[in-house]
Write a structure and sequence with these properties.
Rossmann fold; alpha/beta; 4-stranded antiparallel beta sheet; 2 domains; 35% helix; 6-stranded mixed beta sheet; 10 helices
Length: 311
């Protein structure tokens, strides 16, 4: 796998609390990578080590196969923290130009890129406003622009949709997809599972400082499937149509059934049975668990394990 970032056995402790506890993973170039976990899981501490804000107690961070050097590599990274780092009294246009110059752009480059992004996001009229006059959503758009305008190779977005209305959330989402298609690598940190299913290629789930899940979105959902299926018919399904040996009935709505396949039987066996009963099938599909369901299950299982261990 052609990775841009390799995290190996990373650890960080504050007093007696292990914020990051022996976490390892790799991120493929050009991918959208989801870093998931409940509040307090260690996500922000992990991101701050990746960006050089915190120094790890142990482990290593490799950027393009070489040890990460905050002094040299910071220009290759764009970081949008959850806690906004904008100067409230500064005018928006001046602030965007200032932050672009800090990332190494010339005055001309900075002006062209800032004005280009402001036009794309319909922010031209904001130029002389102050950050303190912006709504949370407007401030979020500005923060995103200042994160990506120097065209970093690695873009880190911590809860990027917080405070955004659906229209502006879609605007940012479209830009995330476009940047990934251009070859940028994006780390997307959130606790909102529905956004992850739609956006990310690969995810890890952390809880209490430890990694508890790692894989592609598709593979993770397959790994946790429960052999549930939904089948709908043109006509009403009567009790005599239900072959309990083939499946367990889990639910019924209108002319549709939710079933769990019995071990040892295939989906073809079930379809053949219903067709043999003279029923006309309209649709048949497997019900995979959502990432939110998997997330809750794993976090609750972890809490139950810790409670058991304390007894």
């Amino acid at each position: 796998m052609n990775t841009i970032l390799d995290i190996k056995n990373l650890q960080k402790q504050f007093s007696d609390q292990k914020a990051v506890d022996d976490i390892s993973f790799g991120i493929r170039k050009g991918s959208i990578f989801g870093l998931l976990g409940p509040n307090g899981a260690g996500k922000t501490t992990l991101l701050r080590m990746i960006t050089g804000i915190f120094h790890p107690d142990a482990g290593s961070i490799l950027l393009d196969g070489k040890p990460f050097d905050p002094q040299q590599d910071v220009a290759r990274i764009g970081y949008m923290p959850e806690e906004r780092g904008l100067y409230k009294k500064m005018k928006i246009g001046e602030q965007a130009l200032y932050l672009a110059r800090l990332k190494g752009l010339s005055r001309k480059e900075a002006n062209e890129r800032v004005r280009g992004w402001f036009e794309k996001f319909q922010m031209e009229s904001w130029w002389n406003k102050k950050v303190e006059d912006l709504s949370k959503g407007m401030s979020q758009k500005l923060q995103f622009v200042t994160t990506v305008l120097h065209e970093p190779e690695l873009i880190i977005l911590d809860e990027p949709f917080s405070g955004l209305d659906p229209v502006n959330a879609n605007l940012i989402k479209d830009e995330i997809f476009r940047l990934a298609l251009e070859g940028r690598t994006i780390i997307f940190s959130t606790h909102r599972m529905e956004q992850v299913e739609e956006i990310c290629d690969h995810i890890i789930l952390v809880n209490k400082g430890r990694k508890i899940l790692d894989g592609t979105v598709r593979q993770v959902r397959q790994d946790f499937k429960e052999h549930l299926y939904r089948i709908s018919f043109e006509q009403e399904v009567l009790p005599e149509h239900l072959a309990i040996h083939l499946f367990e009935l889990k639910g019924r709505k209108d002319n549709a059934l939710t079933i769990r396949k019995t071990e040892g039987y295939s989906t073809n066996d079930i379809l053949s049975y219903f067709i043999g009963q003279g029923l006309v099938i309209q649709s048949f599909h497997e019900l995979l668990p959502s990432l939110n369901d998997i997330f809750i299950r794993l976090v609750e299982e972890g809490q139950a394990t810790r409670q058991f261990e304390r007894r």
